[in-house]
């Protein structure tokens, strides 16, 4: 595993220490790795959302929504 040393402001360092001292994380590195994993997942989710928005915008103008007709169709399916 590669090593990476980073400087943090004291307030942030204290936060990391608190998170590891409460027992949820084994050590500071474990906490930082978890933050990175969560950030990667968030970025992936954001990309999927952006792609869905782009696809929707590219699909053209939407049709008018008829709530009553939709409700009837849903009731027939159940």
User: Share of helix among residues?
Assistant: 55-70%
Q: How far from one another are the termini?
A: 55 Å
Major beta sheet, specifics?
none
The H-and-E topology, N to C, reads as: HHH
Structural classification:
mainly alpha
Mean pLDDT across residues: 94
**Overall spatial form:** elongated
Number of E-state strands: 0
Please state roughly what percent of the residues sit in beta strands, choosing from under 5%, 5-15%, 15-25%, 25-35%, 35-45% or over 45%.
Answer: under 5%
Which ranges are low-confidence, i.e. pLDDT below 50, for 5 or more consecutive residues? none
Radius of gyration: 24 Å
- State the helix count: 3
Which structural traits does this protein have?
single chain; 78 residues; mainly alpha; 69% helix
In short:
By secondary structure, the protein is mainly α. The protein contains 3 helices and no strands.
Question: Explain this structure to me?
Answer:
- It contains 3 helices and no strands.
- The chain is mainly α and 78 residues long.
- The longest helix is centred in the middle third of the chain and has 31 residues, at 28-58.
- It is elongated, with a radius of gyration of 24 Å.
- 0% of the residues are buried.
Layout of strands and helices, then pairs:
Layout: H1 10-21, H2 28-58, H3 67-77
Helix pairs in contact: 1-2
């Amino acid at each position: 595993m590669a090593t990476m040393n980073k400087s943090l402001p004291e307030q942030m360092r204290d936060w990391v220490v608190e998170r590891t001292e409460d027992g949820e994380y084994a050590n500071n590195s474990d906490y930082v790795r978890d933050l990175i994993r969560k950030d990667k997942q968030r970025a992936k989710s954001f990309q999927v959302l952006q792609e869905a928005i782009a696809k929707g915008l590219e699909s053209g103008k939407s049709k008018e929504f008829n709530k009553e007709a939709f409700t009837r169709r849903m009731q027939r399916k159940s």
